[in-house]
Amino acid sequence: MGTSMAWTLLILSGLLDVCWAISVKMADGYSRLAWSILSFGLLAAFIYALGKALQVLPIGTAYAVWTGIGAIGSIAVGIVMFREPATFARLFWIAVTLSGIVGLKLSSA
């Protein structure tokens, strides 16, 4: 597998992580069966994609990028879907996190 495919899998894994977080919230403490089953499937999928990406990419950079995608994506979904607050402080720290992700990606080209 090439580097570009590994980055693609890493991004996919991060997006699946965001979907997993949504499914866990919707599972309501794992009391809703369909959402619970979906959450376990998404968990398996994002772990698999992350593992494949880590065969090629440096672990520190890859894990930081993956975590950032999950964190920023989950915050964005929380703001849009669940009407969580979009305060200046939250948006500022999202921007700081995003700049760190971009910096790590550029330094690992």
Taken together, the total number of domains comes to: 1
Instruction: State the total count of DSSP E strands.
Output: 0
Report the portion of residues in β strands.
under 5%
Runs in which pLDDT lies below 50 for 5 or more consecutive residues are: none
Q: Topology as H/E string? A: HHHH
Helix share bin: over 70%
Q: Outline, from the CA principal axes?
A: flat
Structural Rg: 15 Å
DSSP helix count? Answer: 4
Instruction: Indicate the structural class.
Output: mainly alpha
Largest sheet: none
The average pLDDT is 94
The N- and C-terminal alpha carbons lie at a distance of 16 Å
Could you write a compact summary of the structure shown?
The chain contains four helices and no strands. It is mainly α and 109 residues long. The two termini are 16 Å apart.
Folded structure, characterized:
- With 109 residues, this protein is mainly α.
- It has one domain.
- The chain is built from four helices and no strands.
- It starts with a helix and ends with a helix.
